[in-house]
Design goal:
This protein is of the alpha+beta class and 645 residues long. It contains 22 helices and 16 strands. It has an 8-stranded antiparallel sheet with strand order 15-14-13-12-9-11-10-16. Strands 3-4-6-7-8 form a 5-stranded antiparallel sheet. The protein has a 3-stranded antiparallel sheet with strand order 1-2-5, with no helix packed on it. Strand 1 and strand 2 form a beta hairpin. Helix 7 packs antiparallel against helix 8 (220-232), helix 8 packs across helix 9 and helix 9 packs across helix 16 (381-388). The N and C termini lie far apart (73 Å).
Length: 645
């Protein structure tokens, strides 16, 4: 850090001019000469030391002082930092001396270095014996300049060690950096005082307003450093504006928006977002709900309102419903997203972003969308930054480059690593051509099956009760919890497909499998695919793949491949001939990729990766994929338990 352009006279003079007592200062301090109640102005500094005094101190110490500290001493030979900081008073040329580690800190730090310590750890361990001590009054704390921890300008790092904290020292790259940080803290500690107004506070407040307008114009990267600096000075509005930019840059994180949760203008957007962390149970304490409700009440939210919002966010019934054109786009996007069309839903939101209007000056982005159970998962970090880079609220500017789509065409992604899935996971799916996906429960669902609210498909499958946990369900039954949606047709069909996908139940394709294709095809064509890619091992079944196609209640063709054995029926199209698609010399993965590509090309089948791995869509429970025992057949069951002797 070069100090060539830094004016210590101006900096310290401004600090002295702006100084006011902290809020809890003793008002009786510094009475005037006549014994009256008027306060004598506090002098933070002293007259500067001349060159001879500085040179004498350097000769006594045996080292030339670092540039920024040397220049400081020439302007003020010591300084009162602040009674609210760990360090109260910095000494001058006559006061400073070597620390010499009087409390034996060096061995404590050296014993924790390990076999491959980082350079900064080695420097810190040796700092205690060689550091220059600056403070003359403190709260059991020390200001230490390290002559070995230097930069290209010859500056020494300054460490502040709070002896009562048990924490590592705070490190500043130079004396000047430390003083600038203390000046910002001086401002931050007094930001709430009603009469604390000066040129610095006015300049920082102007920066906050400038940053707000930049953010609405999509220039959020320019706005962030302005807000970060204003926040370091404790300026009002800087924290809530900056947190919105940070939140949308990393949507999975959580932020605090203070009293906005109680303001009726912002409550519909902010309170549900605040409820997301406790609703997910993100490492919260056992009394998470009560603790969160107390926090919201302390910040002004009505207890019943906060409790209702938390409940709705947790059970997935919350709906983000802003007014106006933006609200209509939100409703349209949700309708697409709940059936798996995540990319289409995002395009609707993206195109409508310029129409978004803030309910008040503290909101600079549509944060409320994050808490919507269907739309929230769509807002990835890339899309969050695209929101921030889009001009909105009547402001103008260039549109950002669109974030890439998340859904690849076709089915081959099923054999590739993705969120919540591995390429060796099994899966099964039913497609029905040209119908509303809401009809699928009636076609292949168990008795009384209904669509759930949009949920995480993986959690729905994992949490589903097993046959032995359900009354009236036989142990041999294989009822799947399937995710429901629609995909567009390709490959010349021109028609869309409704799908019911199970990628998380991990059942295996047995000889007792009963394809639901015929039942699903009562009003049109239906396709069933089941991939069980478990590799052969002693005592295990071979990898298997099944395809069946039916129309108007009749199976047209089918095949099942188990290892090298192929079972087939009906007139299978040449493009789907298993003898052509499954080659003994190729790997299981290559064979499956080949058949998945053929299914996409020949039948136009696809599945939305994002919705099935990260989104929230409807589910229902199917009838059994295993047929009932025939005459003379039976099932044997083995249960395992522990017996303590």
């Amino acid at each position: 850090m070069s100090s060539a352009s830094f004016n210590w006279h101006e900096f310290l003079g401004r600090w002295q001019e702006e100084w006011v007592p902290p809020e809890d200062a003793d008002e009786d301090d510094g009475e005037g000469e006549d014994g009256g109640g008027e306060q004598t102005p506090v002098r933070l500094g002293r007259p500067g030391a001349d060159e001879a005094a500085i040179a004498a101190a350097e000769e006594r110490l045996g080292r030339r002082l670092p540039p920024s500290y040397r220049e400081f001493l020439a302007v003020s030979d010591g300084w009162q930092v602040d009674q609210t900081a760990a360090i109260y008073q910095l000494g001058g040329t006559a006061d400073i001396d070597w620390f010499r580690d009087p409390y034996g800190m060096t061995p404590l730090y050296e014993q924790n270095l390990g076999d491959n310590p980082r350079e900064e750890e080695v420097l810190l361990a040796g700092m205690w014996r060689r550091a220059l001590r600056l403070e003359t009054d403190s709260d059991m704390s020390y200001a230490l300049l390290d002559p070995e921890d230097t930069d290209q300008d010859g500056e020494w790092a300054l460490y502040v060690y709070k002896g009562w904290s048990g924490e590592l020292p705070d490190r500043y790259p130079s004396f000047r950096a430390y003083m600038e940080a203390m000046y910002r803290r001086f401002h931050s500690d007094r930001a709430g005082l009603p009469d604390f107004v000066n040129a610095t506070t006015r300049a920082q407040d102007a920066h906050v307003e400038q940053a707000r307008l930049l953010a609405l114009r999509g220039r959020y990267e320019e706005a962030m450093p302005l807000l970060e600096e204003a926040l370091s000075f404790g300026r009002p509005r800087s924290a809530v504006l900056l947190d919105q930019l940070r939140h949308l840059s990393a949507p999975s994180s959580s932020r605090s928006y203070g009293s906005m949760v109680a303001d009726p203008r912002y409550l519909p957007e902010i309170l549900p977002v605040e409820a997301m962390a406790p609703a997910r149970g993100d490492g919260w304490r056992p009394d998470a709900d009560e603790y969160w409700l107390r926090m919201m009440t302390a910040r002004g939210a009505a207890p019943k309102t906060a409790e209702a919002v938390l409940s709705a966010v947790r059970d997935g019934t919350h709906r983000y419903a802003p007014p106006g054109p933006w609200g209509r786009a939100v409703a349209e996007a949700r309708e697409s997203a709940r059936w798996g069309a995540s990319d289409a839903a995002w395009r609707v939101l993206r195109d409508a972003l310029p129409l978004w209007e803030p309910p008040g000056p503290l909101l600079i982005a549509p944060l409320g969308v994050l808490a919507d159970p269907v739309l929230g998962p769509l807002i990835t970090p890339e899309r969050g930054r695209e929101i921030l880079a889009t001009p909105r609220a009547g402001e103008t500017g260039p549109a950002p480059e669109p974030a890439p789509a998340h859904d690849p065409p076709g089915l081959t992604w099923l054999r590739e690593p993705a969120a919540n899935r591995q390429p060796t996971d099994g899966y099964r799916c039913v497609w029905v051509e040209g119908i509303d996906p809401a009809r699928l429960p009636a076609l292949i669902g168990e008795e009384g099956a209904e669509l759930s609210a949009p949920v995480d498909p993986k959690r729905a499958s994992v949490r589903a009760p097993r046959p032995h946990e359900r009354e009236g369900v036989e142990l041999w039954e294989d009822r799947a919890v399937v995710a429901v949606g629609r995909t567009g047709g390709t490959g010349g069909t021109g028609e869309g497909w409704a799908f019911a996908f199970d990628g998380y139940s991990h059942h295996y394709l047995s000889d007792l499998f009963l394809s639901p294709a015929a039942a699903a095809s009562s009003s049109g064509r239906a396709v069933v695919v089941w991939s069980d890619p478990r590799r052969s091992s002693p005592g295990d079944h071979p990898a298997a793949f099944h395809l069946s196609v039916a129309e108007h209640g009749e199976e047209l063709y089918a095949f099942t491949v188990r290892g090298t054995e192929i079972q087939r029926s009906g007139a299978i199209p040449e493009a789907l001939d298993p003898a052509r698609l499954f080659r003994p010399e190729d790997t299981e993965r290559d064979n499956e990729l080949r058949v998945l590509e053929a299914l996409h090309t020949e039948l136009g089948l696809s599945l939305p990766r994002f919705a099935l791995t990260q989104g929230r869509i409807h589910t229902f429970t199917t009838r059994s994929w295993t047929r009932a025992p025939r005459a003379g057949e039976g099932f044997a069951y083995i249960s395992f338990g522990r017996h303590r002797s």
